[in-house]
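lol ok so funny story. i was supposed to be doing the assay writeup but got distracted and ended up predicting the structure for this chain instead. priorities right. anyway since i did it might as well share w the group, maybe its usefull for someone
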Amino acid sequence: MLTAGVDLAAEPRGTALAVIDWSGTTARVVELEAGVSDVRIASLAPDVASLGIDCAFGWPDDFVAFVTRHAAGDPPHRSEGELTGSGMEWRRRLAYRETDRATRMQTGRWPLSVATDRLGLTAMHCAALLHSLSTVIGAIDRSGGGVAAEVYPSATLRLWGFSTVGYKADPAIRATLLGAIQQRAPWLELTRVADLMTASDDAFDAVIAALAARAHALGKWHRPPPESLERAGREGWIVLPAVDLAELKPSSWPGAA
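and the output, tada:
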């Protein structure tokens, strides 16, 4: 099995790609690249069991409806009974997707808002990337039902019990976090890529995205509930692992179930 992770940025120069090979007794990061193009990502998509992409796959339904009404010159609220622009609850409903609310319930933190935060430019890039991917792997199921999966590396790390404070900005903290990961997952070979993961938070997150993709490929992730599935197909759904990092070990690792 191969899984891939993409730390997506607004431009290729900030985008990183990792590929992990799970076929041996250990899991090996066989590729870790920075400055990756959409063409490169699309070229490997047919060969992986799961492609984890760190970016929102869509926008909140309520935000899309709000922008559509505003463009048409209609009132921003759908009915007189709906909260108007003076309420934080109303604005928060526009700003966040159903999966963002679910992620906050599981992790205690709000993800960045694709509608109102700096993630927006990257999400535009993601929309174009998903279209490119659809030409090589078929229609993209934004709810996580296909090869492509929306992942969230920092939330994944927190769910696995790792501290994520400061790791994005500080190479020393990334080095410490890397050591903690290797202690918990001795079957994960990171020696060859450790320097790049320490130097670049983009490369670091690409590897974590590829680990989250393993949980996705094994079906060990929190799926959208039935009542949210249709909405998730439009808005996207963050694939959060439902098992500890240790449960992702290669099947041929000594002692693996």
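The chain has a mean pLDDT of 94. The two ends are 17 Å apart (CA to CA).
back to the writeup now i swear
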